[in-house]
Amino acid sequence: MKKYNFLTIILLGITLIGCKGTKKDENSLFTIDDSAFPAHFTSKEAVSFGVLNPNSKEVDSIAYFVNDKKVGSTKGAEKFKFELKDQKLGYQYLKATVYFGSDSSDATKRIELVSNVEPKLLNYKIVNTYPHDTKAFTEGLEFHDGVLYESTGQKGDSYFRSVDYKTGKVIKQVDLPKEYFGEGITFINGKIYQLSWQENTGFIYDAATLKLEKTFKYDKEIEGWGMTNDGKYIYRSDGTEKIWKMEPDTQKLIDYINVYSGTSKIKVLNELEYINGKLYANVWQKDAIAVINPISGAVEGILNMSGLRKFIKHPEAEVLNGIAYNPATKTIFVTGKYWEKMFEITVSE
After folding, report:
1. Same domain for 302 and 222
2. Residue in 82, 11, 9, 91 with CA at minimum distance from that of residue 49
3. Taking CA atoms, which of 20, 44, 71, 182 is between 20 and 30 Å from 130?
4. What is the b/e burial string over 11-49, where b = at least 16 CB atoms within 10 angstroms of the residue's CB?
5. What percentage of the chain carries pLDDT values higher than 90?
């Protein structure tokens, strides 16, 4: 077994096997010839696709599309070669519009683009241990101006608050209305952004006063999970393999990546943190953190955090969740839902 498959097991418990192709369009006169297609493609490859013409129609030309964007055309029934290097990971939808006589017909096929990056197994070292509130159902964790902020979930008990992380003492707390299940938070442009889970609603506060300034509705039918930012854009997880990019001023979702480790999608991504150009993501129900390339979606590193469990004795302690980078100390703080401890760690290969 390759090393990256072993590391994927840390994230998933199993290695998922993708499949190529879709059911052939029985109403089409043509089909895309996938006889030479591999089970998966990577960004270093190209897809060469043409059509099968079982009725021997006289083909004038073919227009080729990838994800509904025209990428080229050929005369007659010639194949077309398309480089995959600039495509995001995940499913790619191929279409060939075949022109013959005064008519045309579409042939379609789906392929899967997976990661060719071998994730590195990262090590961590505990440098400090601090108290953590065992009543906090942690959803988000972030440092801002040297102060640690934490957001929590559960309807009727959702809030975000500033905390003296060394003592666990609450500095200031803002409660959500009881109908909302709170999720991740992030600070950007003098504002605090907070998500709710299934209520399709986000909140924007003034970062200095913590006063609510605005609520907003999600512009797509997704759930709210984790949140972070790179100084320009906000990144949001939704409980799937997707991480969305959001424009802070308009709250519009403008792009997304699909997260893959090898051939496997890494789903149920939860709390997020942007650290030195990479996205760190808790994987729900796994004591693991995936380090993700924010452009490609490829998992580049994996932190197996299962060793922290031996320090957690609280009987109601749940999953690992909560990642905060402290730029002053260049260390990472991690905790979990209802954990009695928070750990300050350093990370190395």
Report:
1. yes
2. 82
3. 182
4. bbeebeebeeeeeeeeeebbbbbbeebeebbbbeeebeb
5. 91
Residue finishing a domain among 49, 82, 114: 114
47 and 146 fall within a common domain: no
* Alpha carbon 324 to chain centroid, angstroms: 17
CA distance 276 to 290: 14
- Report, as an integer, the average pLDDT of 128-154: 97
Number of domains in the chain: 2
Percent share of the chain, pLDDT over 70? 93
Mean of per-residue pLDDT scores for the chain: 92
d(C-alpha 258, C-alpha 150), whole Å = 27
DSSP, collapsed to helix, strand or coil, labels residue 207 as coil
Q: Which domain holds residue 68?
A: 18-114
Reported as a pLDDT band with limits 50, 70 and 90, residue 11 is confident
Cβ–Cβ < 8 Å for 241, 274: no
235-292 per-position pLDDT tens digit:
999 999 999 999 999 999 999 999 999 999 999 999 999 999 999 999 999 999 999 9
User: What's the CA angle centered on 344, arms 118 and 7, to 5 degrees?
Assistant: 20
137-149 core/surface letters (b: 16 or more CB in 10 A; e: else): bbbbbbbeeeebb
Check whether residue 134 and residue 79 sit in a common domain. no
Say how far apart CA 37 and CA 47 lie, in whole Å.
Answer: 8
Residues 175 and 241 in one domain: yes
Asked whether residue 106 falls in the same domain as residue 133, the answer is no
